[in-house]
Amino acid sequence: MIVFRIAAFALLGLFTTACQSGQPDNSDVVQWRLPDKLNEISGLALTADERLLAITDEEAIVYEIDYQDGGLVKAFALGSPTVRGDFEGIAVLDGMVWLLTSNGRLYNFREGADGERVDYQRINTDLGDECEFEGLAAESTTDRLLLVCKESKKRKKGLRIFEWLATGDKNQKAVEIELDEDALEESIDKKKVNPSGIAISPATGNRIVVAARQRAVFEVTRGGELIDVIMLLDAGRHEQPEGVVVTEDGRLIIADEAGNGAARLAIYSPEQQEE
To answer: In terms of pTM, does the model score above 0.70?
Structure first.
């Protein structure tokens, strides 16, 4: 584990908190057009008080989004200069924020104020040879981080989630959970599934996974058994779904990268998820 310490200071002119977002795209689902600086949004996380944090690809800048109107509340960065990498996931556990890169590196740090640069720790999980990762979630009841595998590097078949104990030794061996890929492929009528985001249901503890290429959202148990396909996302509404979280009252929030359009944030009520 490598510890980095840097001076915290205002990032003059780098961040703007007063950004105008677009109006919801339709009447049945609340969906906001996000500011251009979030075009590469790649992950979502909720704080304990249900504020929404987001990470974009390439730079370790964490944004807080008001999901009631799609506007930016604040942004802060890791490092000076800002740490760069292929960031694909974000989670919050016991007051600390965690980031995940596609090659399995973890960064953890305290939440910063608007424009602040923060100290951080970097941990190499040594899982980069196993998977290309794209999604991170935190389970507070077990102090575990869930790293979801987008592409397996050692096998052609198999959906995989790795559980990493946040309070464990840096040389620990991650626990691997294999999902029933055949059952899922049959349910969504696809030959392959590529997860792009993961969340935990506050009500059940089940894992909620979104797959960008297949535009599918599905629910699995802690042991990896498929419970149900929650929804197949409309292509016109979801360009590239990358991040997902579930609020305490059951709302499903999905973030889309811009693709050929604009980055978006969609909020589905529990009733809309059952349609």
So the answer is: yes
